[in-house]
């Protein structure tokens, strides 16, 4: 089992930046990729970005060129650097791990609120 803990959310004005972190513990050696998702009030959870074990990254069109996913293997942590934030980026952000045992459960998430 893999456990995930997200942190780094907060309140920021439009145009500002935040960096989210997601630290994994447990059976981390089974992880082949990790992803960020978000869920805005009243909406379904949506995928934001993925990073694989070899460092390949992919992004949703809505965040491309504004968000950057990265990783620190020594810390078992991935990050989501969010720049040029917009009010529509307001959501609870979650990370998820994928590997040989299938997808992990969800962490508790971290709230990001962007004011206009």
Q: What is the total tally of β strands?
A: 11
| Element-by-element helix/strand order | EEEEEEEEEEE
Instruction: Report the β-strand fraction as a percent range.
Output: over 45%
Q: Rough shape?
A: globular
**What oligomeric state best describes the polypeptide chains here?**
single chain
Sheet/helix structural class:
mainly beta
Give the low-pLDDT segments. none
- Average pLDDT value? 95
The biggest sheet, with number of strands, parallel, antiparallel or mixed sense and barrel status, is: 7 strands, mixed
Radius of gyration: 13 Å
Task: Give the end-to-end Cα distance, rounded to a whole number of Å.
Answer: 40 Å
Number of helices: 0
Helix content: under 10%
